[in-house]
Amino acid sequence: MRAVIDLDGTMLGEETGFADGKYQMNTEPYPVPLLCIDTSEHYEQGQRYGDQYVNHVILSLAKDGREIQFTDAGHMNFTDLPLFSPPLAALLGTGKRDARECLVTMNGIIRDYFDYYLKGQGTLSLQETY
Q1: 94-98: long-range pairs with CB below 8 Å, 24+
Q2: Which pLDDT belongs to residue 114?
Q3: Is 120 helix (H, G, I), strand (E, B) or coil?
Q4: 118-127 pLDDT tens trace
Q5: Where does the chain show beta strands of DSSP type E?
Q6: pLDDT score, position 47
Q7: What distance in Å separates the CA atoms of residue 57 and residue 53, rounded to the nearest whole number?
């Protein structure tokens, strides 16, 4: 079985057009499990867009769609940039969260998710907020 993880991004490839002031989106069932990992800020922005936020539509159509958020994290906290160039990472967008702890936690979630879906190993226990 395959699985997909979206890291703090908007699934723009699933938008098919814009007409009458609304986005059109792919409405075919997403055929594999999907996990969206977001910063709290990105998650909250998506909540404000409601059914016009493509990730919500695709998650609702996924075989197993889940969304989690990291508090006090910025987009660059999902990269290793804050570890080797904190000033550049801060310029591009980090949160108050400890960079190493954020990466270790995220990497553990990703490992467990893929072990569960790709290898059929372990159990999957995801929190909504980290």
Answers
A1: 95/39, 95/70, 96/72, 97/70, 97/71, 97/72, 97/73
A2: 97
A3: coil
A4: 999 999 999 9
A5: 4-7, 15-19, 22-25, 34-39, 65-70
A6: 87
A7: 7
- Pull the structure tokens for residue 84: 């080797």
- Select from 125, 117, 11 the least CA-distant residue to 63: 117
Q: 61, 28 in Cβ contact below 8 A?
A: yes
Instruction: Identify which of 5, 11, 68, 13 has the alpha carbon closest to the alpha carbon of residue 32.
Output: 5
Chain segment 39-97, per-residue pLDDT in tens: 998 888 888 988 889 999 999 999 899 999 999 999 999 999 999 999 999 999 999 99
Contacts of 20 (CB under 8 A, 6+ apart): none
Looking at residue 108, what DSSP letter applies? H
Q: How confident is the model at residue 1 (pLDDT cuts 50, 70, 90)?
A: low
Asked whether the whole model's pTM tops 0.70, one would answer: yes
21: left (phi over 0), alpha (psi -120 to 50) or beta: left
| Residue 28 neighbours by CB under 8 Å, 6+ apart | 61
> 46: closest CA among 78, 18, 6?
6
